[in-house]
Known about the structure:
The complex is a heterodimer of chains A (163) and B (192).
Chain A: H1 2-22, E1 34-37, E2 42-44, E3 54-59, H2 64-80, E4 85-90, H3 97-107, E5 112-115, H4 120-124, E6 132-136, E7 142-146, H5 153-162
Parallel strand pairs in A: 3-4, 4-5
Antiparallel strand pairs in A: 1-2, 1-5, 3-6, 6-7
Chain B: H1 2-21, E1 47-51, E2 63-64, E3 73-77, H2 84-95, H3 97-100, E4 106-111, H4 115-125, E5 130-133, H5 138-142, E6 155-159, E7 165-169, H6 177-191
Parallel strand pairs in B: 3-4, 4-5
Antiparallel strand pairs in B: 1-2, 1-5, 3-6, 6-7
Amino acid sequence: xxxxxxxxxxxxxxxxxxxxxxxxxxxxxxxxxxxxxxxxxxxxxxxxxxxxxxxxxxxxxxxxxxxxxxxxxxxxxxxxxxxxxxxxxxxxxxxxxxxxxxxxxxxxxxxxxxxxxxxxxxxxxxxxxxxxxxxxxxxxxxxxxxxxxxxxxxxxxxxxxxx
Amino acid sequence: xxxxxxxxxxxxxxxxxxxxxxxxxxxxxxxxxxxxxxxxxxxxxxxxxxxxxxxxxxxxxxxxxxxxxxxxxxxxxxxxxxxxxxxxxxxxxxxxxxxxxxxxxxxxxxxxxxxxxxxxxxxxxxxxxxxxxxxxxxxxxxxxxxxxxxxxxxxxxxxxxxxxxxxxxxxxxxxxxxxxxxxxxxxxxxxx
Lengths: 163, 192
């Protein structure tokens, strides 16, 4: 009996730890949830998911890695913005809408800015950290996830639009 | 026995699917074993060495949970100093300290990092909390928060003044605003 208990714990804990850190698995259907824009108006992600390719970045104004990543997001938008919907979902932790508005006005990111004050998308996409990018194909399937400033966004988008 | 075999089967399913598909990422598990004291149970006592942004605590004066009876205590187990998720979490804790916790709540972070790393991490965020070093993860394990590779799971416990667990979140997501709202409510209720 003790051996079974030990086996259970041995198998379960690493899985739990990985699941906490890795985000939504590639290949799964992208969750369609409703969040808000900066004015508090509801925005249904189903407006785009399943209809065209989507790139989402989960970000915050205090996220220095997001700032480092921003030039790559701009370049990716310049190359693929006509075919792919770019959404910047602010995670709202330690963020007011006013602070986000000021940051957006100053930095002019290329994405449509959304404000997830209920955390619906953070939970649905199992967002591990800010700078988390999720790409979704036109059929609504998650085809890429990544974090950090060194992501090859254009390479991933090239594969996405070639599908 | 049957229950245990059923549990083993549930736990093995994600591993089997992962291996079968040959994917680089595991399938999300549908069940996990959660150890550690649940709400209403007595929080296990422990003593660990500590560091703050300003100092490293003396060896003969560790942080002892029992010494804080009469206060609300928040235990925040986290994977590792300087990781992005932990940075986001403690940035938020620091920035929202007054609204989340108030001045009378004892907030401590716990990971396997050394005291010197803890001090550098606390300084980097100018955080006002104690960071406890649990190098062999014995305390983290008693709270169901130890994972493999010397990393902790990200969990949060709120301990009432009587030493019993008021609330726990065994999967604290540092970018989920709802996680902070629930923590804030639990701290307020524990202090009543």
